[in-house]
Amino acid sequence: MKDNLIKIRRDLHKIPELDIKLPKTTAYLTDYLEKLPCTIKRIGKAGFVAYFDKGKDKTIAFRTDMDALPVQEETGHDFQSVHDGRMHACGHDGHMSIMLGFASEIANLNTNSNVLLVFQAAEETTGGAKEICDSKVFKKYNTVKIYGLHIWPGFPKHTIACRGGDLMAGNKNFWINIDGKSSHAAKSDEGIDALEIAAELVHHIYDAEQKEFPDDVERVLKFCTFNSGTGINIISGKTEMSGTIRFTSMWTLRIILSILSVLCKRYEDEYKCSIELTTSEGYPPVINPAEMVDELEEVVSSLSERYDTDYFSLEKPLLTSEDFSFYQQKIPGLFFLLGTGMDAQLHNGSYDIDEDVLPLGVEIFKALLANA
Fold it and tell me: pTM above 0.90?
């Protein structure tokens, strides 16, 4: 199994594609799956599912993402990306390899459920999971559960990390555009300084957010871009800012959005300017059902000797986001992390995985299916 998984991973690693434009990736995956006893159904712009009919009255789903990142690869591997400026720098090549390895095993497994393998685009961009959910494919196949994993750096090799409740944060991006009035700096009283207003507003928002929440509430509110002004002696008539929000409960998100909205309106009225606040749809938090986490812990224990694996529960949720959360809003779903023992972090050109962990991913999926 391991040699096959490594070959698949390296084949896919060479051809990273972005967002929903995944023709080479989907062709590779479907060519492989067409040799297996499953039905392939295209969903939306780039996603698809593979359905293994075991003659049962319920279906268990497993999900992999397929898209890569606009990152220049720096690993130096002989199988590194052939697409300049694109790289599988988040482990999705490993996820797809695990899924195809799992698919190869399904036909020979005695199961209590049918199996639905979900191949999803746009995890890194627009949240391709939502398109899968909106397709009603889960209802069509009477899908009662879904599982997903993420290969993760920084955790010891072969360890499985998870937690009940909030595992990963939700995210929402925001944009604030301030329209003031431009004037010569020598006649600043004739202008409405959009840069000064923006600077004060950022400080006020940060101060209000810190005062609103106790330290133990996991969240992020950060401005990440700030563009203003046209000349060294011209009062800025326009400022554009953007940032991100991370939250582990909808209550936290509502308070942060209220802070942004209230203060933007207050500054608009006070300075007689125009302030526009807009937000993205974003991703909800990844929330794991406690009973599914218990099931995972038992599965890991059953594989501990064979793979020298161990389970550990994270003390706090991660503030990174994952659109697997959309599936969890549709049906019960479990998301967990597979440690690689590697140091290079996600989303950078030196990111890599230890391919020894790939068979463990397949075995965990098999064991979860057997227990379903």
Answer: yes
